[in-house]
Design goal:
It is built from 2 helices and 7 strands, in the order αβββαββββ. It is of the alpha+beta class and about 100 residues long. Strand 5 and strand 6 form a beta hairpin.
Length: about 100
């Protein structure tokens, strides 16, 4: 399951639990948008000072690490090793953010 699927399914569950609200998006009812601190920043918003994340749940995190490896001839080479793991992410709603000041 991708992070987008995890976020959508978890959002729906939080709507059913009464934690998130439904909003109209292009004439369709959807769970209110949630993003991480960096996600809102990429969209041109900043989290208001003092706000705490409304919800948290695990999503996939990808890292790449460069390691030195030796081949059978004893030559040292650098290799990139990718790793995926679940990490708790903290999400904020639209009501908790404001547009970035220019």
């Amino acid at each position: 399951m991708t992070n987008n699927e995890i976020i959508y399914r978890t959002s729906v569950q939080f709507v059913e639990d009464g934690i998130l609200d439904m909003v109209l998006v292009d004439g369709m009812e959807m769970p209110e948008p949630i993003h991480t601190f960096n996600g809102w920043k990429e969209l041109g918003y900043s989290v208001k000072k003092g706000e705490k994340s409304k919800i948290k749940f695990p999503i996939w995190k990808h890292t790449t690490k460069t390691i030195e490896a030796q081949d059978k001839n004893g030559n040292t080479t650098e290799q990139d090793v990718s790793k995926m793991f679940m990490k708790t992410a903290y999400f904020f709603t639209f009501a908790q953010v404001e547009p970035l000041k220019a």
